[in-house]
Specification:
Layout: E1 18-22, E2 29-34, H1 44-55, H2 60-67, H3 71-84, H4 97-105, H5 111-119
Antiparallel strand pairs: 1-2
Helix pairs in contact: 4-5
Length: 120
């Protein structure tokens, strides 16, 4: 029977560490503290969602069909996965084009600086 590595403690929900790995062929054993992949922190449903996401190349329409869920549900599940992977709060702030152009017209920033801000 194949058991999957779990990423959090079933008792306290704290992150787990792998302390031993071994080779099935030569029986080499390595002990230490190893970090688990971020994806181990996802529950089974989230892992399956990511498999479907990759399989469908991120095409939400195809995901809707395969999973039998609506567009908003796909988006919500994707946001849950982003949170579980620690990507919340890492979004780039939206570029305020009007503000940049106003600063340019007032001479507060150079055209090179404005161009850089608009293209980032």
């Amino acid at each position: 029977m194949d058991y999957k590595v779990i990423g959090s403690c079933p008792v306290c929900n704290h992150e787990l560490k792998v302390t031993e790995i071994s080779c099935n062929k030569c029986r080499t054993i390595i002990r230490g503290e190893f970090e688990l992949s971020k994806f181990c922190k996802l529950d089974k449903e989230q892992q399956y969602f990511i498999e479907v996401f990759i399989k469908n190349r991120g095409n939400i329409k195809e995901m809707e069909k395969e999973l039998g869920i609506s567009y908003p549900t796909v988006r919500n599940k994707l946001e849950e996965v982003r949170k579980s992977l620690g990507f919340v709060g890492q979004e780039k702030p939206a570029v305020n084009k009007k503000e940049i152009l106003d600063k340019l017209s007032k001479g507060e920033i150079s055209k090179d600086k404005a161009l850089k801000l608009l293209t980032e």
